[in-house]
Predict the structure.
Amino acid sequence: MTELRITADHFQVGDLVHRDDGSRIEIRRIASREGGVLAVNEGDPDEMHGFAWQHATVTRPDAEDSP
């Protein structure tokens, strides 16, 4: 697994987003909205919204981690 500091417009399904409270959210779905807004896991209890240009730390599975 690789830890990255990226803008939200570079999120990928499977990334684990690090939250300020220390928890992590796995990205299962990403939707783009008007005005540069991104919705992650929309409609689920772990739904998040933010702007495409906001930075976040994510953990991303490395290619060798995949089956």
Notes: The chain has a mean pLDDT of 92. Residues 30 and 46 are 12 Å apart (CA to CA).
